[in-house]
Specification:
The protein is mainly alpha-helical. The protein has one domain. Helix content is about 75%, strand content about 0%. Helix 2 packs across helix 4.
């Protein structure tokens, strides 16, 4: 089961690092917040630490903060 959780976290990281900006351009803010919340929920606690270390553009950072209840 740990392997499945690791794979899920890796897929979430790929999405956040490489696909987030493209999706932000196509989706309204409320939908993006929901997508980010669902993405976050799929990761283990350890997995949730990694995306916080990534650099996001200002729009992505703002949406992540809102999705996590920090903004």
């Amino acid at each position: 089961m740990a392997d499945v959780q690791t794979m899920e976290a890796a897929l979430c990281l790929v999405f956040l690092e490489f696909q987030l900006d493209d999706l932000i351009a196509k989706q309204p803010e409320a939908k993006m917040i929901g997508i980010l919340q669902k993405t976050w929920a799929k990761m283990s606690q350890q997995g949730k630490e990694q995306p916080l270390k990534l650099r996001y553009n200002p729009d992505g950072a703002k949406l992540i903060q809102k999705a996590l209840g920090q903004g």
